[in-house]
Write a structure and sequence with these properties.
alpha/beta, Rossmann fold, seven-stranded parallel sheet, 8 helices, about 45% helix, globular, binds nicotinamide-adenine-dinucleotide
């Protein structure tokens, strides 16, 4: 219950899906959590729900594609809670599902702005707070799409592959300051992102969902908590010797 006691953590894209599960589990484990998202209504509802349970949590409107938004939200969170010790770079979009020769420059850039630049901006503006705290933990949510090709969403693959190596480079760069960086590579997790992707690309949602579930050797889709518990571990001192690592949480999808 207290694995994150005295930790202050920011979660981008924390209003729903995997990010929301991270916020729920981290506050449950005693962290004060800053939720950064563009879904203000969902964010407000989540905060109200968690505060009613006695959790310490605050919401900031923040578009991760805008550097100024991230700087001001992270500075405000550190001021509000007295420090910042952890960052979960979770905000992301799936983007266009077309083969490379049909993708426009605007479609490509839209995905990189959120999924790559968002991680860069958040990390950049969290780091001064980690310097002050004399340590920190950054958890970057990449994907199995950052490890293997799926012939599905080219800009997304490029972005998630970039996040994997941004993680390793920063892990080495900041190790001497006790700031750790790790990436998580989820398989298909049942959230709005996957539901919308399947709805847009297949005529029968239930059949598509069953097929995707069956493509994981464990025979099911992941749940947001399957990822959130790994995030709790990586934010906690239990993982004090873990940096530059990639955690593949995919029901065996990439084991073949
Ligand atoms: N669901 C999966 O199967 C899966 C698999 C691998 C990786 N991921 C990654 O996990 C992360 C979370 O995905 P999810 O499935 O929970 O998706 P989701 O669509 O349910 O949630 C994404 C969250 O990010 C927020 N967001 C999007 N753009 C933003 C922006 N510009 N600024 C701030 N917030 C923004 C959304 O508002 C939302 O709250 C993403 O990075 C995604 O790529 C998901």
């Amino acid at each position: 219950m207290h694995r994150l006691r005295n930790k202050v953590v920011a979660v981008t894209g924390g209003a729903q899906g995997i990010g929301r599960a991270c916020v729920e589990r981290a506050t449950e484990e005693g962290a004060a959590v800053a939720v950064l998202d563009i879904l203000d209504q969902e964010g407000a509802a989540l905060i109200a729900d968690l505060r009613a349970k006695g959790r310490t949590v605050e919401y900031w409107h923040c578009d991760v594609a805008h550097e100024a938004d991230l700087r001001s939200a992270l500075d405000a969170a550190a001021k509000r809670f007295g420090a910042l010790h952890g960052l979960v770079n979770n905000a992301g979009i799936a983007g266009i599902s077309r083969p490379t020769h049909e993708v426009t420059e605007a479609q490509w850039d839209a995905v990189q702005s959120v999924n790559v630049k968002g991680v860069f901006f958040a990390t950049k503006h969290a780091l001064p707070h980690f310097f002050q705290a004399k340590g920190g933990s950054v958890v970057n949510i990449s994907s199995i799409a950052g490890l293997v090709g799926l012939a599905s969403v080219p800009p997304y693959h490029a972005a998630k592959g970039a996040v994997r190596l941004m993680t390793k480079n920063d892990a080495i760069q900041y190790a001497s300051k006790q700031i750790r960086f790790n990436s998580i590579h989820p398989g298909y997790i049942w959230t709005a992102m996957v539901e919308n992707h399947l709805k847009a690309n297949s005529p029968n949602l239930e059949a598509a969902k069953a097929a995707v579930a069956a493509s994981h050797p464990l025979g099911r889709l992941g749940a947001p908590d399957d990822i959130a518990w790994c995030v709790v571990y990586l934010l906690s001192d239990e993982s004090a010797f873990v940096t530059g690592a990639e955690f593949v949480i995919d029901g065996g999808y990439t084991a073949r």
